[in-house]
Amino acid sequence: MTAQAVRSGLKHVVVAALIATGLGASLSACGNSGTDLAKQACTHINRSIRLLEQSQHQSDHARAAQLAEQAYDQLRAALPIAAQAAFHDGQWQALMTTISESSRVPEGVLVSALQQQCAVADNPGATPPPPGSTPGT
């Protein structure tokens, strides 16, 4: 990886983190429950997964890289929201942890765990998978 690619990636992470931090702060001021916040985080996560899937079906490598980067940015934008969800309700600690793994594990490895955790957010009566039973948790 070139130094320019690293700087570019770092720039995108910083921008996404600043945006997400602002969103997280504004969301916490709204008094949302942990589940509501988890659903909001899952909106970013689901968008990220769709972008990642689109990137994997691109024959144009530049476009594929662009979509993968957008997917990563969406996933990282979900992190502060998931952190707020975990703060309000410990049930969402696994979601926050799985998202945080995206800084060192390819997103594709985390997709199954993220989908399972978001299924619980979207269906509050669902039982979350036990810790450690999904990749990245």
Summarize the structure.
With 137 residues, the protein is mostly helical.
Which helices and strands, and how do they pair?
Elements: H1 3-29, H2 34-56, H3 61-88, H4 93-100, H5 107-122
Helix pairs in contact: 1-3, 2-3, 2-5, 3-4, 4-5
Describe the structure.
The protein has 5 helices and no strands. The chain is elongated, with a radius of gyration of 15 Å. It has 137 residues and is mostly helical. Helix 3 packs antiparallel against helix 4 (93-100) and helix 4 (93-100) packs antiparallel against helix 5 (107-122). The longest helix is centred in the middle third of the chain and has 28 residues, at 61-88. Helix content is 74%, strand content 0%. The chain has one domain (3-122). The model is unreliable at 133-137 (pLDDT under 50).
Radius of gyration: 15 Å
Tell how many strands the DSSP assignment holds.
0
Helix content: over 70%
SSE series: HHHHH
Overall domain count: 1
Tags for this entry?
0% strand; mainly alpha; 137 residues
